[in-house]
Write a structure and sequence with these properties.
The chain is α+β, with helices and mostly antiparallel strands. The protein has a single domain (3-161), classed as Aldehyde Oxidoreductase, domain 3 (Alpha-Beta Complex), CATH 3.90.1170.40. It is 27% helix and 35% strand. Strands 2-1-5-7-3 form a 5-stranded antiparallel sheet, sandwiched between helices. It has a 3-stranded antiparallel sheet with strand order 6-4-8. The longest helix has 19 residues, at 137-155. The relative contact order is 0.22.
Length: 162
């Protein structure tokens, strides 16, 4: 099984290789983990389910009313319709950490989690998971849409191979 380096951005502050529940606070909020492509917890939905459990454990339910998730995968065709074989993806960890903090500071938002796959990806591989938790859908939906759009526009670099 080939392993790719993946990053899960969490609400906990930890340095590369650190324990997300520990006290090793670093500049980046990410926890670097190894996992198989597109999936670091064994099943695709386990990551999102784990994030939901973690958020609910610390939640003030006066402020938490919903979770909204995004799971992006590598498509078989480019935006212009050409068939692709694979894609290479890289991203800026510092910018991602800053964006997560910004989104978590929005009115009505309780937590934001992001995981981005990195490296050479094949058709169907997971590219990104994003989760936004908040009080009302009127605040959560726009934040998730902005989060994913800005990650695609400002954070990741994608190269498709045809």
């Amino acid at each position: 099984m080939k392993y790719e380096r993946i990053v899960k951005m969490t609400g906990d502050v930890a340095r590369e290789g650190g324990d997300p529940r520990g006290s090793d606070a670093g500049a980046l909020r990410g926890v670097l983990q190894c996992g198989d492509r597109g999936n670091s917890f064994g099943k695709e939905n386990d990551m999102i389910e784990q994030w939901i459990r973690e958020i609910k454990e610390r939640a003030n339910f006066e402020d938490l009313g919903m979770f909204l998730a995004h799971h992006g995968v590598v498509r078989a065709t480019s935006k212009d319709g050409r068939r692709i074989r694979e894609m290479r993806l890289a991203y800026d960890r510092r910018k991602l950490a800053d964006l997560v903090r910004e989104m978590e500071g929005r009115e009505g938002i309780v937590a934001v989690r992001v995981w981005i796959n990195e490296g050479l990806l094949r058709i169907g591989d997971g590219i990104m998971y994003a989760l936004v938790a908040g009080k009302f859908r009127t605040t959560v939906f726009p934040v998730l849409e902005e989060l994913v759009s800005r990650i695609k526009r400002e954070i990741v670099e994608e190269k498709e191979y045809f």
